[in-house]
Amino acid sequence: xxxxxxTGASKGLGRALAEALAARGWDLVxxxxxxxxxxxxAAGLEARHGTRVxxxxxxxxxxxxxxxxxxxxxKLGGVDLLVSNASALGAEPLLRLEGLPLEGLRRALEVNxxxxxxxxxxxxxxxxxxxxxxxxxxSSDAAAEPxxxxxGYGASKAALDQLAAVLGEEEPGxxxxxxxxxxxxxxxxxxxxxxxxxPRPAPAGVVPAFLRLLDERxxxxxxAAPSLLVEGR
Length: 233
Description:
By secondary structure, the chain is an alpha/beta fold. Helices cover about 50% and strands about 15% of the residues. The protein has helices at about 10-25, 35-50, 65-75, 100-130, 150-170, 185-190, 205-215, 225-230, and strands at about 5, 25-30, 55, 80-85, 135-140, 175-180, 220-225. Strands 3-2-1-4-5-6-7 form a 7-stranded parallel beta sheet, with helices on both faces. α4 runs parallel beside α5. It is globular.
């Protein structure tokens, strides 16, 4: 069975994507900082789908933890897919740049960019060895659009987009996709803008866009999930 590493997988988009892959028979290595919720997620996936799921709580900014994730995937058979979904906002709720704590910006860059690259570096030999290795970097429309208060987070995601673009050039044997999932109802968004109670789509509704990438394997590049969903109808 193919093996995927998914970071930030205890809830939201990471959990929804894990559910969809497990339903397809994928074995999974899941990461999140909330140990109890992550283990409950993994146990539920194993019970429902019969796949092997390894739950490794930890912080992706820790090099030792990243090594543990890749080692766990190797024991399951390798790494066919790496999904960098774990994200940090930099401030909760979000702030204008004039008041953004620099420590918060550093945290966003460390989680969203540095750790994502570190995990790719750790997993690259296994990804290259896979029959159809792929990397998904979960981006944001804030990486391309100048939304007020989203400057720090958006800058980190723009940097992630550029890393993904360069990785795609440097590793032509892989598929490297930066994916903007679009508007979703997640805990991350609620923490970013707690006063915004407008209804938003559930993360599970976005997952078919990610599955389409895996099924059709288009060229490495940046993709918007809403466009993939419309084109796929």
